[in-house]
Amino acid sequence: MFQRFIQQDNSKILSNTNGKINAIPILTCHQLTYNMQDYSSAATTITVPLFDQEMKYLTTGYR
Fold first, then answer.
1. Which of 2, 9, 18, 27 is 20 to 30 A from residue 54's alpha carbon, by CA?
2. Averaged pLDDT score across all residues of the chain
3. Following DSSP, what letter does each residue of 13-57 receive, concatenated?
4. pLDDT of 29 over the 60 cut
5. 50-54 mean pLDDT
6. Which of these, 46, 58, 59, 60, lies nearest to 8 by C-alpha position?
7. What are phi and psi of 25, to 5 degrees?
8. pLDDT at 61 over 70
């Protein structure tokens, strides 16, 4: 799932040209859980460790 997140984040590069930002990512999570059963049953649910990994990715600038 993290690799899918990275692919989605990198796809915005195609929308940004010559220093002009034509698109920005919007991250939507409705529920955080440690329970993998909850994670598997709801599309808007994300696990706490995955959310942490995504936030670190976005804030460290290693894109």
1. 18
2. 76
3. GGG-BTTB---------SEEES-HHHHHH-TTEEEHHHHHHHHHH
4. yes
5. 90
6. 58
7. -75, 145
8. no
Average pLDDT over residues 25-41: 77
**What six digits make up the tokens of 57?**
């990715």
**In the chain, what are the domain boundaries?**
27-63
CB burial readout 11-50, b (16+ within 10 A) else e: eeeeeeeeeeeeeeeeeeeeeebeeeeebeeeeeebbeeb
Q: Measured between alpha carbons, how far is 63 from 59 in angstroms, rounded to an integer?
A: 10
